[in-house]
Amino acid sequence: MRVQETIAELERVAATDVGRGSGKLAVPAAGGLLAAARSIAEHPAPDAIVLTGFFIPAADPAAAATDGPIGAVQVAAALRALGGRARLLTDAPCAPVIEAALAAAAPDVPLDVAPLQGYDAWADAAARRYGAVTHLVACARVGPGVDGRPRNMRGEDIGAHTAPLDRLYAAGSGYRVGIGDGGNELGMGRLPAELVGRVVDRGERIRCVVDCDALLVGGTSNWAAAALVGALAVLRPDVAALRDLLRPDWSYDVLTAIVLHAGAVDGVRRRAELSVDGLDWSAYAKPLARIAELVDRAG
Fold first, then answer.
1. How many CB atoms lie within 10 A of CB 154?
2. How much is the CA Rg of the chain, to the nearest whole Å?
3. Is residue 155 within 8 Å of 139, Cβ to Cβ?
């Protein structure tokens, strides 16, 4: 396959539908993967903030979801492999899971944690630190809906457990990449409101209104993040470390770490188990294996 054809196929694999309409949501976002990957691969010195963390307050015990942290760490590690800079950004409720993900796979990547209390003062200082970043990548990070409130797929307002990181994301001058799967994540404002309302359950209520420069839609957000790393590997075949990040067992190791060491929960099942968005490992790993295969075939 040629480079553009391979990346288009990576985009399609990432959007494999698991029953939530990702295949339809991905149609108007087509080309976003190539645009996002080129913006990173062709930049002489990429410097990114990668936002993630989707808190599940109704889980027992409450914790961040397994979808998002794996992909966020994967993208950050890829940026570092390319010789760029990257740091993760989350909020206090999600921090234990993100810390576990970094400890397992990218301990040299810094983590910034936004507080729920005193957020404005923290954000003012953060905005100054982030002023020169070239990219802002949001991976499964919930964003505000039409009423300004962040909502999960059940339509529940989780604002009491969520710092408004969308403000930093929207105000940033860097190239903004959005990665999501359900319409309620940062960047999904790029999709037509009518489409999200029609395809996603409670879509009119939960859809995020924050736009981005390039949107990546996945059946799970982690798949779309893996596709971004895959596209970078296709564009930069000289960086062998990118292929290592695409091995399914790399993702399995991170999943195991965040569940066993930090209590990360499946956002659909609301339980701490080795699954992502209702998918057991065997089903979840299939698109990951296909992404790795496509990159290997591209040479």
1. 11
2. 17
3. no
Number of domains forming the structure of the chain: 1
- What's the domain range around 125? 3-298
Cis peptide upstream of residue 61 (ω within 30 degrees of 0): yes
Give residue 22's pLDDT band: very low, low, confident or very high (50, 70, 90).
very high
**CB distance 103 to 73 below 8 Å:** no
**Strand stretches in the chain, DSSP E:** 47-52, 55-56, 63-64, 85-91, 111-114, 135-139, 175-180, 214-217, 275-276, 279-280
- Cβ-based burial of 82 (10 A; exposed 0-12, middle 13-18, buried ≥19): buried
* Residue 210 belongs to domain with CATH number: 3.90.1640.20
In this predicted structure, the answer to whether residue 271 has a pLDDT above a threshold of 80 is yes
Please tell me the pTM assigned to this model.
Answer: 0.98
**pLDDT tens profile 85-112:** 999 999 999 999 999 999 999 999 999 9
Q: Rounded to an integer, what distance in angstroms lies between the CA atom of residue 280 and that of residue 273?
A: 9
Residue with tokens 């599940």: 56
Kindly provide the b/e burial profile for residues 41-55, where b requires at least 16 CB atoms within 10 angstroms of the residue's own CB. bebeebbbbbbbbbb
Structure tokens at 191: 């999709």
Diameter over CA atoms, the chain: 51
Cα→Cα distances 68→27, 46, 147, 248, 268, Å? 22, 21, 24, 16, 13
In the numeric block, which tokens belong to residue 264?
């990360």
Q: Which of 136, 132, 114 is nearest to 123 (CA)?
A: 114
